[in-house]
Amino acid sequence: MSDIDGRAVAAALRAEVAADAARLREEGIVPTLAVVVPTDDEGTAWYVRSIRKAAEKEGIDCRVEHLKDPGKDEIVAKLQELSADPAVHGIICQTPLPEGVTLSAVGGYISPLKDVDGANSESLGRLAAGLRTFAPATAAAVLELLKREDLVLEGAKAVVVGRSTVVGKPAALLLLNESATVTVCHSRTKDLAAVCREADVLVAAVGRAGMITADFVKPGATVIDVGTNPTDDGGLVGDVDYASVAPIAGRLTPVPRGVGPVTTALLLRHTVIAAELPKSH
Ligand code: NDP
Question: Does the predicted TM-score (pTM) go above 0.95?
């Protein structure tokens, strides 16, 4: 089995982003990512700091908009303001959101042209229709990792475990758009292990530490572990039980250092693409 090195893929992507950002700056465009933070959650704050650091390192300005105890109207107003601001090219809205507010409810106020993390359901609809759009960065990271492994996705059997609108569904649509034969599993799927064992490409996006064990994996399969589950000692583990699956899988993404760094790199790539868009309109 070989590990798929997410950090190496992210480094390659970020080098391309840095070159694009430098060119845009020479043309007088400062690629800018706005991050709306409607929470005081410490985990979110850590993630936002890491996005900002990565963005600034590659030449992208990062505008963090922290909202203190906001209601839905305040979040919507901020997203509308940023959508209308020509100096802002990419917009993401962090979770957790206040009680009773969902990302699909507020995501619709992010202009699709700036929706670099695919939070607007219009973006998901365009993805389903096979049209050009920004897919959620994590789902896009799944596909990027597979493509960089030179896998033949056309005709491959792909199983995605998880059907959320941020990861499972868009990952399934991206795989379908590559002509894979896609099965989407969820909490009501019967005999999940048997369905997963059919997969040439298995994507785990559940949020349950180590639930994908050796008996879910066909020998030689490529396994992408999207799960990030905090451990008691402050670490992170994936949805895949690495120790039992590694001897069976052909290729496997570790957690950490798998999907996570590629997700961040793709948010940045989407932002430079968004910064190019006004030139093509
Ligand atoms: P959600 O909780 O929104 O969705 C989880 C999905 O898993 C649901 O579709 C649910 O099914 C399904 N599920 C739950 N239990 C089971 C089970 N026992 N068997 C089969 N399916 C099950 O999570 P997200 O999609 O937001 O995130 C998934 C994981 O990915 C999490 O660990 C999250 O932290 C991680 N993540 C990682 C990112 C990264 O950059 N690396 C970014 C975003 C997320 P049902 O729909 O029936 O309830």
Answer: yes
